[in-house]
C-alpha cells in the first residue's frame, strides 16, 4: 500500500545517491516540485532518465545532482536550448555529464519492456542512424519467426520513478488524465515510486480517459498543490509558457542560474 | 501584398498537405504550417502530436507539443508508447512533417550534434525525439527548413533520421515502409528527390528567387529540374490566416 507522506520525507526515504531516477511527464504533469526537493536534499551522482528532459532536469543538472542522462530529446519545447544541459555536455559544468541517447520510440519501448518484465523491446526504425553507432544500448535482433532484422533496446528499470498526478484518495490510489505520456510505464518499470498529487480526496470521481494507478502498485503519495508548475495539471491549471521563455534567460548564464537556484529553490521549502 | 521569406516557406509547406491526410506534426515550423493548412484548404487534416493527441484541433498555435489545448481538442488522447507503437509504426500516418538542423543531398537529417566529434560537439542540439521513427514509418515525409550552406551540407555530421540513405534501394534494405522525404520546403524554393538517383533536386523557386541563389545556399552541386517552376505567391487569405495564427507566439 502506498504511504501518504510529506514530499521531503518521500524523497529522503526513496531516493539515494547514485540511483537511476525517472521524473517523467511529457510536457504535462511534470513533477517539478519533487525535482526541487531533490536539489534541496543535495542528491549526487544520479543517472537521470527521461524522454524529454526539460527545465526541471536542466535545474537538476545545473545544481550538480546528475552524473548521467538517458534521454531522447533535450530542449525547451518551442523556446530553444536547455543551457545547463548544454553547458554540462559542452563544457563539463558544474561537472561532466555522461549521456545515453535514444529516440522517443526507443525510450518509450524501454519503459514498456521494464514494466512488462522482459529483457528488451523491438521496434522498427533506428536502423541506418548514427544513434546506433554511439549507443551500445541500441542494437539489432533477428526475428526468430520471420528472419527480419529489427532494432532492439534493453528494458529500462529505474530505481525510483517520480510522477505528478491530479489526485489521490486516502488509501493512496492515484488518478490522472489528459496527456499521460509514459508515466504509467515509468512507475511500473521502477523498483520504487513516488507520486505527487494536486489534492487528496475522499472519493475519486470518474473522469474520461483517466488512468488509475492502484495503491498497491505505488510506494508513496505526497500532496503538493501546484507541484507541476510551470508545466500544467489538466483541470487544475494551465501551462505557464512565459516561465518557459523566461527560463531561457535565467539559465543562459551560470551566475544568473546560481542566484536563481539560491533564492528560488534552496531558500524555499514546500510545505504540505 | 508583401510577405517574408519565412511566410512564403510556411505557406508552401502548408499547401503540400492534402485535406484527407493524417499528419504527424513536430513543434515549430511544421506545426505552424499544418495548422495553417487546416485553417485554409485542408479543414479535414488530422493532426497527430507525439505527446498523445490524435486529431487535435487547436484554436491557437501551441508553444509545445504537449500544450493543454491539444488534449482539450483531440479526438483521442493516448499514451506515448501507443502513439509510436500502434499509430505510427504500422504505417497508419500518411505524412510526417519534420524540421532539421542539417540536411544532405539524400535528405538525411541531423538534429543531434554539429561537428565531427559526437563526444565533443561544436553545438549540442536537442536530439532525435520522434524523428527517426517518423522518417521510417510515415507514408512520406515533408521537411521544412531554412536554406543555407550551413544547413544544406554534402553529408550531415550525424544521421539522426534516415532520408534516402546513400541512394536508391537503401530504405528498402533497412526495411522501412514509408517512401521517405518527398519534399523539402525552404525559404528559397522546393526540392524533391530525383526519381532515379534519389538526390534532392530543385523543382520550384519562390517568387523573386533565382536558381543561382539557391545553388549558392546549397553545400553540394545542386541539380535543377528541367521543368523548374515558380511557386505561386501567398494569397491574401493565406497571409492573413498565418499572421493571425502566429500573433503572440514566438517560435
Word description of this protein:
The complex is a heterodimer of chains A (272) and B (251). Chain A contains nine helices and 13 strands. In chain A, the strands form two sheets. In chain A, strands 1, 2, 3, 4, 5, 9, 10, 11, 12 and 13 form a ten-stranded mixed β-sheet that branches. Chain A has a three-stranded antiparallel β-sheet with strand order 6-8-7, with helices on one face. In chain A, helix 2 runs parallel beside helix 3, helix 3 packs across helix 4 and helix 5 crosses helix 7. Chain A starts with a strand and ends in a 6-residue tail after the last helix. By secondary structure, chain B is an alpha/beta fold. Chain B has eight helices and 14 strands. Chain B has a ten-stranded mixed β-sheet, with helices on both faces. In chain B, strands 6-7 form a two-stranded antiparallel sheet. In chain B, strand 12 and strand 13 form a beta hairpin. Chain B is globular. The two termini of chain B are 24 Å apart. The model of chain B has no long low-confidence stretch (mean pLDDT 95). Chains A and B meet through helix 4, helix 5 and helix 8 of A and helix 3, strand 4, helix 4 and helix 5 of B.
Any descriptors?
heterodimer, A: 272 residues, alpha/beta, three-stranded antiparallel beta sheet, 13 strands, B: 251 residues, ten-stranded mixed beta sheet, two-stranded antiparallel ribbon, 8 helices, 26% helix, globular
Amino acid at each position: 500500500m502506498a504511504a501518504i507522506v510529506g514530499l521531503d520525507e518521500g524523497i529522503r526515504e526513496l531516493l539515494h545517491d547514485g540511483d537511476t531516477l525517472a521524473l517523467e511527464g511529457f510536457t504535462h504533469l511534470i513533477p517539478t516540485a519533487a525535482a526541487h526537493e531533490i536539489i534541496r536534499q543535495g542528491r549526487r551522482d544520479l543517472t537521470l532518465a527521461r524522454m524529454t528532459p526539460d527545465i526541471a532536469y536542466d535545474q537538476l543538472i545545473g545544481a550538480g545532482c546528475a552524473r548521467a542522462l538517458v534521454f531522447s530529446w533535450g530542449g525547451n519545447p518551442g523556446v530553444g536550448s536547455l543551457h545547463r544541459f548544454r553547458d554540462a555536455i559542452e563544457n563539463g559544468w558544474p561537472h561532466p555529464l555522461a549521456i545515453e541517447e535514444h529516440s522517443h520510440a526507443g525510450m518509450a519501448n524501454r519503459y514498456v519492456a521494464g514494466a512488462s518484465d522482459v529483457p528488451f523491446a523491438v521496434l522498427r526504425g533506428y536502423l541506418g542512424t548514427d544513434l546506433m553507432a554511439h549507443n551500445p544500448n541500441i542494437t539489432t535482433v533477428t526475428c526468430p519467426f520471420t528472419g527480419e532484422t529489427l532494432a532492439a533496446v534493453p528494458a529500462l528499470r529505474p530505481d525510483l520513478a517520480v510522477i505528478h498526478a491530479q489526485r489521490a484518495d486516502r488509501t493512496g490510489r492515484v488518478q490522472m488524465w489528459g496527456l499521460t505520456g509514459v508515466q504509467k510505464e515509468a512507475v511500473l518499470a521502477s523498483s520504487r515510486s513516488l507520486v505527487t498529487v494536486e489534492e487528496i480526496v475522499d472519493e475519486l470521481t470518474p473522469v474520461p480517459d483517466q488512468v488509475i494507478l492502484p495503491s498497491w502498485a505505488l510506494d508513496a503519495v505526497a500532496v503538493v498543490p501546484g507541484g507541476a508548475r510551470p508545466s500544467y495539471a489538466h483541470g487544475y491549471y494551465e501551462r505557464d509558457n512565459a516561465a518557459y521563455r523566461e527560463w531561457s534567460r535565467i539559465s543562459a548564464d551560470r551566475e544568473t542560474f546560481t542566484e536563481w537556484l539560491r533564492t528560488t529553490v534552496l531558500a524555499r521549502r514546500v510545505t504540505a | 501584398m508583401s510577405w517574408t521569406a519565412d511566410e512564403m516557406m510556411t505557406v508552401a509547406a502548408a499547401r503540400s498537405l492534402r485535406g484527407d491526410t493524417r499528419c504527424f506534426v513536430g513543434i515549430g515550423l511544421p506545426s505552424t504550417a499544418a495548422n495553417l493548412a487546416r485553417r485554409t484548404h485542408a479543414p479535414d487534416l488530422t493532426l497527430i502530436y507525439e505527446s498523445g493527441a490524435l486529431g487535435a484541433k487547436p484554436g491557437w498555435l501551441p508553444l509545445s507539443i504537449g500544450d493543454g489545448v491539444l488534449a482539450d481538442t483531440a479526438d483521442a488522447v493516448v499514451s506515448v508508447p501507443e502513439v509510436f507503437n500502434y499509430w505510427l509504426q504500422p504505417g497508419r500516418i500518411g505524412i510526417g512533417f519534420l524540421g532539421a538542423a542539417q540536411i544532405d543531398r539524400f535528405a538525411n537529417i541531423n538534429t543531434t550534434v554539429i561537428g565531427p566529434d559526437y563526444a565533443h560537439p561544436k553545438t549540442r542540439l536537442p536530439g532525435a525525439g520522434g524523428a527517426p521513427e517518423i522518417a521510417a514509418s510515415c507514408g512520406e515525409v515533408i521537411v521544412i527548413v531554412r536554406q543555407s550552406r550551413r544547413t544544406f551540407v554534402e553529408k550531415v555530421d550525424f544521421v539522426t533520421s534516415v532520408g534516402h540513405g546513400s541512394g536508391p534501394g537503401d530504405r528498402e534494405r533497412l526495411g522501412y515502409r514509408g517512401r521517405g522525404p518527398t519534399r523539402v520546403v525552404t525559404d528559397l524554393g522546393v526540392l524533391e528527390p530525383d526519381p532515379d538517383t534519389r538526390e534532392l533536386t530543385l523543382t520550384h523557386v519562390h517568387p523573386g528567387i533565382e536558381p543561382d541563389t539557391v545553388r549558392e545556399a546549397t553545400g553540394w552541386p545542386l541539380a535543377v529540374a528541367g521543368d523548374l517552376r515558380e511557386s505561386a505567391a501567398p494569397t491574401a487569405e493565406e497571409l492573413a490566416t498565418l499572421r493571425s495564427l502566429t500573433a503572440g507566439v514566438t517560435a
